[in-house]
Amino acid sequence: MKAIVCDRYGRPDTLRIEDVERPVPLDDQVLVRVHTSSLNAADAEILSGAFSARISGPLKPRHRIPGSDVGGRVEEVGKNVKQFKKGDAVFGDLFTYGFGAFAEYVAVPEHALMKKPDSISFKDAATLPQAAKIALQGLRGKRPLMKGQKVLVNGAGGGMGTFAVQIAKYYGAEVTGVDSARKLGMLRAVGADHVIDFAQEDCTRGEERYDLILDTASQRSIFDYRRVMAPHGIFVLVGGSRYAIFQAMLLGPLVSVASRKKMGINPMKVDNKRDLKFLLELIEKGKLQPVIDRCISLEEVPEALMDLSKGLVNGKVVIEIQHGGVI
Which of 23, 71, 115, 318 could form a disulfide bond with 125, CB atoms 3.0-4.6 angstroms apart? Predict the structure, then answer.
């Protein structure tokens, strides 16, 4: 089978496509014939050799085939599998199950997957497992989001950000999206009440005060955001530079103890099927629509991942896997 492989840390152009052996599912695993996957910021971070990646793979990536979001059909099932049968349409997040979605087939534990409704396309389903779930958990993880509250989303034009804007609007919040000028029109189209071009305006120096700040791409100190938080405001970091992440982990709890403002990182609940079901319901109700920048082949993954690293992607990039010319 064809797969994207990663044998060393580096830039996206170090990735290559190879013919590798098709996996054989274990007794508790499902073999998925992959139809779609999608790119996440975490893919670029792992490839670059981020600290979190080097914990498990100090010299080279632990998992040779990247990719966590997967959508496809069950090809084979292990003898102990109870939930699925051959032909079932499924999707899920492989982040803690060895990755492997950037390939024609992947073998994963059955509890990593859930059935895909017929009403949801494989393209849309592949955008949800990581980005939409993190956005949802970040928005309502610390304290319920209330109607009329003011929410700031930094990095609003990316994969997590476009979901966060729409989910916050679903809960009745007044949403400000921060990103580059090229993405502001799209942010208005998905529901942002206000938009800020980060190159022209510093969102941490304005007069507005926010009840919740969700930062998907921070390059700054958490103390900058503290200035524009409401008295009982919440700051949640879900992505960004290593410096910002470590600062939020180490200093966020101290700030939270010393004041009424809460700052920190919201741990992702990877296997939370309830969240994915809720997101599916929002799509079916027309309250949530994945923003898909483009659909690509496996061969185009390195270039698209480079664009993602540079902030040149609106929403999500979906990979469509061709099997003999058919998706």
Answer: 71
